[in-house]
Amino acid sequence: MDLAHAIQMNVEGLTLDPATKTPIVVLRDAENKLNLPIWIGLLEATAIATELEKIQMARPMTHDLLRSVIDQLGASVEAVEVSDLRENTFFAVIHVRSGDRAIEIDSRPSDAIALALRMQCPIFVAKKVLEQSSILQQEEEGQEQNLSNVSPDKWAEILDRMTPDDFKYKM
Fold this sequence. Notes:
Mean pLDDT: 84
CATH superfamily: Bifunctional nuclease domain
Number of domains: 1
Strand order of the largest sheet: 3-2-1-7-4-5-6
Number of strands: 9
CATH architecture: Roll
């Protein structure tokens, strides 16, 4: 597991795109300098929210089941990584350790994040993903705006101008 080219981030919270009401998970680095918004599905947002709020469900949800399977097999999730951004779609990898075997499992970022919260493991974002996502073309004055260090107060204004296609999350 080589995460030398990644930055550890935490779930800052969930919000809704004001135009489409699509959920967005916002990741933020420990120094509060970098933000990464990822548009996700409603079910994935619910899975993340229930863990953030420590809501106990009557029966195991999908990510709870996955955590139990991993635990029962004697494996562990070492980390999850938002590893790539291609054609406005984010990709993730779940880094699993089973004995001396390191396994990388392809995942949607929202599922990887929901599992990381349950497994209490770190969430990383590849530096190249932050670089690709931090510069969005803005119509205003034909300039680019770096969104990696925008204050939380400024997000509502920025989201009002954006469309889901700016950071489209494909299922």
